[in-house]
Amino acid sequence: MGFARPPSITQLYRMHIQQAATGPLPQIWGGIECTINRVGNQYLDQCQYSGHYNRGRTDLDLIAGLGLRMLRYPVLWEKHQPQQHQPGDWTFVNTQLAHMQQCGITPIVGLVHHGSGPAWVNFFDGSFEQGLARYVYEVATRFPHLEYYTPVNEPLTTARFCGLYGHWYPHKKDDFSFYTILLAECKATVLAMQAIRQINPEAKLVQTEDLGKCYSTPLLQYQAQMENHRRWLSYDLLCGRVNEAHPMWPVLMEAGMEADAVLWFTENFCVPWVAGFNYYITSERYLDENLHHYPEEYHGGNSRHRYADIEVVRSPLDEPHGPEVLLREAAAHLRLPLAVTECHLNAGREDQIRWFHRMVQIAAQLNREGIPIKAVTAWAVLGLWGWNRLVTQPGGDYETGVFKYCGGSMQPTAIAHYIKKIIAHQNCTHPLLTGEGWWQRPDRLRYGTPKIVSMQVNKPKPDAAPLLILGKSGTLGAAFARICAQRHIHHVVLSRADVDLTQTSQIAHTLQGLKPWAVVNATGYVRVDDAEKDADVCFAVNTDAAVEVARQCAALDVPYLNFSTDLVFDGSKEEPYMESDAVNPLNIYGRSKAMAEEQILQVHPQALIVRTAAFFGPWDVHNFAHHTLQSLQNGQTVQAAADVAMSPTYVPHLVDACLQLLMDGAAGVRHLTNGEVLSWADAARKVAAVAGYSPHQVQEQEAKQIDWAAARPRYSALGTQFHSAMPSFDQALQEWAAAVLDVAVKRWIA
């Protein structure tokens, strides 16, 4: 195949150094998590899980709206050529690539993303390499304007998962398979670029690989050293650097590789235009033979030693580490322009912002030093599924990305707003940047005993805008303050003595003085039965005061969160109430909340109203779970209504979900509970079971037997028309039980 020879390593490096000198900040790229991997005979497709195939151009419009102009985008082999001799369906990708041109987005086209190719090829007979070259020639012929390609994403990672760990097809677990697969992927990359350059001689290789490193105790340095040589192997092969003098040569020969197959790359090298690295919080590993320090699921080893393999971030390390260290090592080893081609963190929004901000800071600093970092890529733009189980099962847990899946559509998150500002202004501050990320805090540590060396942290600024929490002494207000402190979210929590919400002047003065980035109103009149005789006070607190705070927030363009209740409904439905269902409260308390909802959204249309119900949590005693447990501990029978259906809510989960919604700029009415529809008797039985008591100690009764002054709906379970932001009730109970036990132990010790 005839093709134009790409620029040399030296030429590329000099070119990008010159660019870095004139513009030290990296570009911001985007990327869609698009893995199509095979487990057994089943293909698992991330774009199918995200619904991208159904939304198509709508997603691209959202991405373009951020200002992103480079996007890692899939034109995957498995999707477009599932049968060897049958034409694939190109309709979707035709439309998408055309729309990208209209939006001003340049795609970096991915061809194999953690995959093993269609079912008619394999890694062991040359069909993968030759097949990919033929497929990409068709891609280049159909779309000759495409310039940037990633033929095989993270070949080393894919080879490990397919050939060494057995997670993905062909599910091998031996060195021969691992290195055979890696050589096949790298050869396929070279042949693919040769084929592409027959159509477009200017085509550029944007290669990607995991930016990992292995650390160890002195005993295991031999293993760490081998893995640290191995981490460069895909790049060294592509650059034609692997020969008899290479440190991995004896390893390759011992594994059964043919010398000619390895030396082929010295004559058929393909230097990347940019060396992309995907850095994750778990990319750096620590090996320790002291197995007793670590849970059994981390135990492994080699033919010489047994050892634990753990995340460096969870165990302190006595030597420099982190993305800055690793990018410097990559630059020194490769002498190529670099890019962070995946930057993603599964965490709260504040930590997602801190993580991305830190990566941009590192890239900018390295550029200023003359180490060319081309871009930082906001990865998983649409989120991702199932990576908590390494994509070994269909679907799986969802991780939000730049956008979040919500009711069938994608909605921007806090990180989306932040990235848009970075792109627009090339510099950006945010009140959430003042705290330390979880990976920087001492509570990240779980295992081991080495010395602590902290990563660089962001010190809080005295003038940073806080989150204002109203309701210091209440269950919700105290929980917000506690969790904000845990998540290093700068906040101010005020009591009724600090600010009287019935006084307009005090509210205005407080907001003008603190200049909060958002306000959480966790105050309220909560005594449902007393409200029947105390209606004026109930309406004054739940309606009038809440509406006035909303009005003052609207005047200053400050986001506002107010809480409502399942008691705004009358119980006439027999299925969970959705956000769009009409309200019809049966009691004074419910009316005060329903009226507040209506008036708040009138004066502050961007306000967030969260309906919830049946609180329980580990930090107060005024909830059904605590009362149930206390009765059981005292040997008493628990009596609970069996004919009233509701949805319990674990307070820590509620607070976390509310904070995410606030940071994302959510508005309108949202239902937040732990999802399950239960009677009070069913809930009590589940509490008994998780606490180690017999569910038979719960006695059912009818609601009419309970001395309630205020009418209650017989059915007030809450559902949601949005993507659920809350874990299950069973998970909530497990966390509650563990937290209650922890609190009890601490009290006993004290």
Under CATH, the homologous superfamily of the largest domain reads Glycosidases
Q: Extract low-pLDDT stretches.
A: 1-5, 450-460, 744-750
Q: What is the overall silhouette?
A: elongated
Q: Kindly, what is the distance between the CA atoms of the first and last residues, rounded to a whole number of angstroms? A: 77 Å
**How many individual β-strands?**
30
Rg result: 29 Å
CATH class of the largest domain: Alpha Beta
For the biggest β-sheet, the strand order reads: 1-4-5-6-7-9-13-14
Strand content: 15-25%
CATH architectural name of the largest domain: Alpha-Beta Barrel
Q: How many structurally independent domains?
A: 2
Overview of the molecule:
The protein has 750 residues and is of the alpha/beta class. The protein folds into 2 domains: 9-444, Alpha-Beta Barrel (TIM Barrel), CATH 3.20.20; 467-749, Rossmann fold (3-Layer(aba) Sandwich), CATH 3.40.50. The chain contains 24 helices and 30 strands. The longest helix is centred in the N-terminal third of the chain and has 25 residues, at 175-199.
